[in-house]
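Many groups now describe folds with learned vocabularies. In that spirit, our science desk offers one protein's residues alongside their backbone shape tokens.
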Amino acid sequence: MALTAPTRTSPVRARQDADGMAVASFVLGLIGTLLFNAVFGPCAIVLGTLAIARETKRRGRALLGIALGIADVILLVVLMTLDQSVFWQFGS
């Protein structure tokens, strides 16, 4: 039985993964402003940070995803402070 060395992903593949993370960060941050901000906000922050660390070509989207993730977390704190809820509430 021959042992083989683990394979590494190519730089092109790593860059594509980072670009996907940047887009996912933006989408999760955007969705998190309306739904499940306790989950989507931190995920957007982590994915955006990983995308920037892996040198994505979509740096703007990654930064916007991080900003939206931070806004989601702030929104969560405000909602919990004002009405002890983590959901939007329309009407009375």
Residues 59-83 form the longest helix (25 residues).
